[in-house]
Amino acid sequence: xxxxxxxxxxxxxxxxxxxxxxxxxxxxxxxxxxxxxxxxxxxxxxxxxxxxxxxxxxxxxxxxxxxxxxxxxxxxxxxxxxxxxxxxxxxxxxxxxxxxxxxxxxxxxxxxxxxxxxxxxxxxxxxxxxxxxxxxxxxxxxxxxxxxxxxxxxxxxxxxxxxxxxxxxxxxxxxxxxxxxxxxxxxxxxxxxxxxxxxxxxxxxxxxxxxxxxxxxxxxxxxxxxxxxxxxxxxxxxxxxxxxxxxxxxxxxxxxxxxxxxxxxxxxxxxxxxxxxxxxxxxxxxxxxxxxxxxxxxxxxxxxxxxxxxxxxxxxxxxxxxxxxxxxxxxxxxxxxxxxxxxxxxxxxxxxxxxxxxxxxxxxxxxxxxxxxxxxxxxxxxxxxxxxxxxxxx
Length: 394
Prior knowledge:
The protein is of the alpha/beta class. 38% of the residues lie in helices and 22% in strands.
């Protein structure tokens, strides 16, 4: 079965065409700067090694980006399928839909449920709704499957989901801790199972522009650092992470508008807000090394949040077998891994400094032989996890 995975950003599209089962990637593609005349389009045939990257392209809509990629897939010389009808399913890394938290066919009812939570995840649901509707037009009759970011976390006990709010708010509005980054954390569980014969007690740290930690016990999620929205949990690149709800009415009383507060929480907070330098940890680290105290504070606060959740999940799990780092920061920042692991050596974690400093595109263990807990770096591959769940969906 040919399964197309579509990963949608606010101004980007990423594609991978899989031949399932077998996890074989036939072709990939990417469109950056959707909606502009200087967009970048990439296509790669994984079977022949052919790649093309075109810059300064006028790609003013998701529809145009989708059509360009499908045209490449069926190109007589560099394509991988004779016609688009070969695609039987399209899987999406959808985020949130009211009442639909697992894996679902993207029917009109499910799309409406995504609309209902548009205010909770505007940066994610809006672009996905647009792209899904464009795919429906371009590939009529193909089954579209949403692998919601909440899907992996449906196993979290309700006692860890419920807020201390009037219970009627939970019943009527669905307000609860959702858990996100399910495609990433689910993929980590798959890799641990494949390479170690099971996950045992594991903590998965997905660290990037957006970050979360997940407690995994015997292959299933039992806790996640995100709450109702994607604003919560760790400090993110621009988003604030955990905060006191009464900050909002206090700022309103000081004369701040709802729009100003929302922008501060969503666009001007996080690593950017603390450091005043950048939302990119690499830039912040350079500034910290140059003596910038706010940059150093941003790094310390970021790592403190990770350490907080690692400690909490160690207690919830009753011990730890695997600590995993993934995502752009998790995979590439030896500094963050060193600071986190150095703070929890009492858990039996011993990092191998040489292995931690090395880079690799493969999953690898960076803990010392004497470490009671295996520390991993596992490159993120959310698209493969989505392809597997889309193929398996019945």
